[in-house]
Amino acid sequence: MKNRYDEKEAQAFVGAYPNCPPELALRVYTSRLLGAEDDLVLHGGGNTSVKCTITNLVGEAQDILYIKGSGWDLGVIAPQGFPGLDLAYLRKLRQVRDLSDAEMVNQFRTHLQDAGSPNPSIETLVHAFLPQRFIDHTHADAIVTLTNREEAEKHLHAALGDNIGILPFIMPGLPLALAMAELYERNPGIDCIILKNHGIFTFGEDAKTAYDRMIECVSRAEAYLAKRAAGATASPVVDPGVVQPAVVLPILRGGLSFVEESGRRRTMQLEVRRNQELLAALARPDAKELFVGGVLTPDHVIRTKNYPLWLEATGLDEEETKAAVHSGLARYQEEYDQYFATQTEAKKVARTKLDSMPRIALVPGLGVVAAGFTRKDAMIAADIAEHTIAAKLLGAPLGPYRELGQASIFDMEYWGLEQAKLGKAKPKPLEGRTALVTGGGGAIAMGIGRKLLEAGARVFMTDINQERLEVVCHNLADTFGSRMVSPLLVDVTSEEAVQLGLEQLVLDCGGLDILVPNAGIAHVAKLAELSEAAFRQVMDVNCMGVFQVIKGAIPIFKRQGTGGSIVINSSKNVFAPGASFGAYSASKAGAHQLGKIAALELAEFGVRVNMINADAIFDDGGVSSGLWDVVGPERMRSRNLDPEGLKDYYRQRNLLKTTVHADHVGNAVVFFASEQTPTTGATLPVDGGIMAAFPR
Ligand SMILES: [Zn+2]
Q: What is the pLDDT of residue 418?
């Protein structure tokens, strides 16, 4: 591992934070160096600290421990991510023999320098009881690869020499802090302390020494592993055969969905990783034995659960895949429930059971499939799974994997303070759901996308016009983050293009819950002047396009088996057509009727189909309506109006004298998609009230 310490950069940090002690600025610098290495810490793992003497408000010198706050990521940490605590007081806690988690956090919070600080790390007392000024702690892949083996001590000494301390796994908190302090005091010359099944601590009187020791230890462990791997015989790779992601993923996603006690259905986002190394690893004859084991370090358990699901779907047809997924998940859940029951009974504690679904599925021939209620959760779980597979593979020549016992895993997974947070944050109504909106490059799509994203859904937008599509997607991504919005270039009139687009979507997130056929074009001409080509083109996009996406989505809905929602952006024209607007009105009426047929045919699968009839929406946040770009000039000419006059004309013609916005359509989509009423086959006008267009 490369040592990235640079004296100039270090001094730049000191200069950048003139209002904090220079040691703290250096602490920020080397913490970021550690955080930049995925092989050291992943997603908020690890922690660092520094001890400084400051002058307090009443002019007294005071020793302060600055330690990483929970929720901060070392890679981006800043001085405010290091709550400062009264070090002299913390050290007195060594006399206490029994300290509950809640009381420990209370002791931290009541001895903070700044009452507004985040909670200090749960490993705070470890840092307080050790004497050195700078302490670095990571869950380095190479280190846990050595510790999670039979004969871990032998491998650790062979890799790192004898000047190290080794402890068995001990739950973070007071017991670990006492054990670490006692070990160090017995062996004050050691360079580091290794915690089996957990990670490594290095230390020093200055920032560079603690960091250098971390990189040195990890590099030695890496070199040792590389040498052992080079000497091992390569494993033969068996061809896993054909696995169809388009079939397996929606079935798996449907299987992972469950209904909570409250009656609320929870659905997850899937994240698929399938690079060559992963596929080769999963294709080894001993893959199941190697990879179906416990986590590398216990804080992964809240992200990935302790065990992955092993799923073989090679050569299976759709029905066989369903049977394999459902029996695999049933077995997984049974084992999880058993673990929960055994541990709560043995520990005589009451805990709220978490859902018993896996977060990682290992599917030979397909890859690693991670699941999470949000895409972020799924991505974090996937990152951890990739590192876990690499570490287990690299450690294989060292002997059998030794996972942490279930009693310790349970303590981490059901840590009291984490449990206290359960049920407090109410998930957004569409969290975990995936939506596809066609006609994604227009004003209405922007409103629909915005409201779906606000409700927590992940949104895919399709359009045939890449430029317009990107404008809308960038706009939405600015507010909701790029991981929640994905553009797909799709011509909805082509069966093949729709198929490819949906396959891409399934590979990206596992399935689909909400389909919003919204693509539409207009053409202004009286029937006498309407060309066959123009009529066909409008029919193709507005009617055939709706048919194609509904038809394409049906197999996904069926494979998932969790219902779904189709919301067609129809038109007030369906009930109140206009002269010179024959192609548009006829095509929209056709699509509307298709929606009703879909409602009839898809009810047995729990899929609801509803229509929204909106009136004139001209633009949204600088994005124009492609339809009104075509229709507007003619309408203005025929009524002798300017653009503002035209908007006013449409406002004045409805009963509520109101302007209809894209967000209004978005609200209607979210209403249907969140299934608040048992409604299908219905039409909801979003037009300010136009009597001629009342649904009938
Ligand atoms: Zn740790």
A: 67
139 C-alpha vs ligand 1 centroid, how far in Å?
Answer: 6
CB-based contact 3:215 (threshold 8 Å): yes
Retrieve residue 304's tokens: 């990935």
**375, 120 Cβ separation under 8 angstroms:** no
pLDDT in tens, 66-98: 999 988 999 999 999 999 999 999 999 999 988
Q: Cα torsion at 496, 497, 500, 504 (round to 10°)?
A: -170
Dist. CA 593 → ligand 1 center (Å):
59
- Separation of CA 172 and ligand 1 centre (Å): 8
Are β-strands 514-516 and 485-489 bridged in parallel, bridged antiparallel, or unpaired? unpaired
Strands 607-614 and 564-569: parallel
What's the Rg (C-alpha) of the chain? 30
Question: How much distance in Å is there from the Cα of 138 to the middle of ligand 1?
Answer: 6
Only one residue has tokens 């972020």, namely 376
Judge if pTM exceeds 0.90. yes
Distance between CA atoms of residues 63 and 52, nearest Å: 6
pLDDT on residue 645 = 86
| CA max distance for the chain | 99
Lookup result for tokens 């380095």? 140
512 half-sphere exposure, CB direction, 13 A CA radius: 29
Tell me the pLDDT tens digit for each residue of 383-429.
Answer: 999 999 999 999 999 999 999 999 999 998 998 766 666 666 788 99
As beta bridge partners, residue 574 has: none
Chain mean pLDDT for the chain: 93
Report pLDDT digits (tens) over 488-529: 999 999 999 999 999 999 999 999 999 999 999 999 999 999
Residue-level pLDDT at 422: 60
Nearest to 47 by CA among 23, 66, 21, 19: 66
- Name residues with Cβ closer than 5 Å to ligand 1, which is an ion: 199
CB 665, CB 448: distance < 8 Å:
yes
Q: For residues 156 and 218, what is the distance between their CA atoms, to the nearest angstrom?
A: 11
Provide the token pair at 505.
């979507």
Residue 259 Cα distances to 255, 268, 433, 447, 668, angstroms: 11, 12, 14, 30, 24
